[in-house]
Amino acid sequence: MKYVQNTDSCEGGCVFCLEEGCDDIKCRILQRGKHAFVIMNIYPYNNGHLLIAPYRHTADLAGLTPEEKLEIMELLGLWTKILKKAMSCHGFNVGANLGRIAGAGIADHLHFHIVPRWNGDTNFMPVIGNTKVLPESLEDCYCQLREKLLEFADGQSGQ
């Protein structure tokens, strides 16, 4: 019920414009880079659905700085590796909806989606019941992914 009522998310204007002192756990921020960050989608298509956004409030993909573009791509690559290891997914949908007409729920702040996919992960519930079934809570998924990020970082530092 807490998920449906959305009583514990970060409040404010643009959900991607992080306020000073925003608590990473409360806001479900998995990783902060210099120019961009990784956050969980609180209305996921599948478990582990992540969003990567620049800190700068912009909807202009072509207007991203080279540093922003590079970091976003590096984060996309890193998190597909982490998700594959943490969730044993078979593939991913990765992309961005540019503009409201293209399906962007938040059109004013550019963000990219990483959606883990498994063979056979679609079922009748979205079609018949207009609802999604997620087998794991956001909190449990967040903890699992943060743990895998730390394991991955520890493994990389020894190389």
Overall geometry: globular
Could you estimate the helical fraction of the residues in percent? Answer: 25-40%
Largest sheet: 5 strands, antiparallel
Query: CATH H-level name... which superfamily?
Result: HIT-like
**What are the segments in which pLDDT stays under 50 over at least 5 consecutive residues?**
1-11
Number of helices: 5
Overall pLDDT confidence: 83
Number of DSSP E strands: 5
Indicate the proportion of strand residues: 15-25%
Beginning-to-end CA distance, first to last residue: 44 Å
What does this structure look like?
The longest helix is centred in the middle third of the chain and has 22 residues, at 66-87. This protein is 35% helix and 16% strand. Helix 3 crosses helix 5. Strands 1-2-3-5-4 form a five-stranded antiparallel sheet. The radius of gyration is 16 Å and the shape is globular. The chain has a single domain (2-157), classed as HIT family, subunit A. The N and C termini lie far apart (44 Å). With 159 residues, the chain is α+β, with helices and mostly antiparallel strands.
